[in-house]
Design a protein that fits this description.
Largest sheet: 3 strands, mixed
Oligomer: single chain
Number of strands: 3
Mean pLDDT: 89
Number of helices: 11
Strand content: under 5%
């Protein structure tokens, strides 16, 4: 067997062994278990909320339950995989401490504000929509505050940790950035499909939500979020992007007098522009940003040897995992 073949076998997995010579799980198993960690967390959350609803739990209570179960199951499982299956520091997935990451979190929010402003301008210019009025309704602001906390722990945080963080990081140790991004998109799209299939199988779900439009939105959204992570080297950027977009399309820019930016759709294309087109605009901006930054899309970034990390002082090992990903 050639050296290249041996390296590939070490990365992708040998059917005769689930672990590599350095004690880490093979890449195939790390990807599979990472994906299952999120699917299991979200699946259990949906069952818990469904059962709670059958016993009279309020809608808000079900949403809180979804958030608590999803994060409390998925994130610890990803941490354990990173610690024991990867044998790598947690910071390697791109998640800095909250104080260090907060500016990037705000950058993600600001980026979405810019993208949505561009979408509104484009839609108005093309005659697809018009801005009716701008409000600051206190009830809506309160709803956004509450929903932001729920959406953070139910969607933005566990999804970014899993897909744009852990799974992408592992994929990029074996594949070029562009291919790791594409594989991450596939894994992201497969997650809700698998959960829906499981829900249908146990009799608590239907296939109604898995539409062509939904799949397209997942693909575009996942690409934009991963690009955010790549161009900034910070997962907090994609978390801020994710959370802000959810609030924008749910409460901020909607055809309702309770919205902050009340719009009227003059064409079905106006609605698509805000929901999907805005993300496509974001992808274009991020690709331009990556070009200006000189991102090497063919780069493969293998993890450092676990034994070498263990031999380094704590400060040095942290610095080693802050290098450009």
């Amino acid at each position: 067997m050639s050296l290249a073949a041996e390296n590939n076998d070490q990365q992708l997995g040998n059917p005769r062994s689930s672990r590599r010579d350095d004690g880490r799980l093979h890449l195939f198993w790390r990807i599979l278990f990472g994906w299952l960690a999120f699917v299991a967390g979200l699946g259990l959350a949906v069952v818990a909320a469904t059962v709670g609803g059958s016993y009279g739990l309020s809608t808000l209570g079900q949403q809180i339950l979804l958030a608590v179960v999803t994060t409390s199951v998925s994130v610890p499982l990803i941490y354990l995989l990173r610690r024991y299956a990867d044998r790598q520091p947690w910071r390697g997935i791109g998640l800095a401490s909250p104080p260090s990451g907060f500016p990037y979190f705000l950058l993600g929010i600001g980026f979405i504000v810019l993208v949505m402003a561009a979408s509104l301008l484009l839609g108005s210019t093309l005659g697809w929509l018009r801005v009716v009025d701008v409000h600051l309704p206190v009830p809506t602001l309160l709803v956004i505050l509450i929903n932001s906390m729920i959406a953070f722990f139910y969607e933005a945080f566990p999804e970014e940790i899993t897909f744009r963080g852990y799974l992408y990081r592992n994929l990029n140790t074996r594949f070029p950035r562009w291919l790791a991004l594409l594989f991450q998109i596939v894994l992201f799209v497969m997650a809700p499909i698998a959960i829906t299939a499981w829900m249908v199988a146990i009799g608590i779900g239907t296939w109604d939500l898995i539409t062509t439009e939904y799949i397209i939105s997942l693909i575009v959204f996942s690409a934009a979020l991963q690009l955010s992570r790549i161009v900034t080297n910070h997962l907090w950027m994609s978390i801020g992007f994710h959370l802000a977009w959810l609030e924008m399309v749910r409460y901020v820019i909607v055809p309702s007098s309770s919205a902050i930016v009340e719009v009227e759709y003059l064409s079905p294309l106006g609605s698509y522009l805000i929901s999907i087109g805005s993300v496509i605009i974001g992808v274009i901006f991020l690709l331009i940003w990556s070009i200006r930054k000189g991102i090497d899309w063919s780069a493969i970034d293998p993890d450092p040897d676990p034994d070498q990390i263990a031999a380094l002082p704590v400060e040095a090992s942290h610095r080693g995992n802050e290098r450009t990903r």
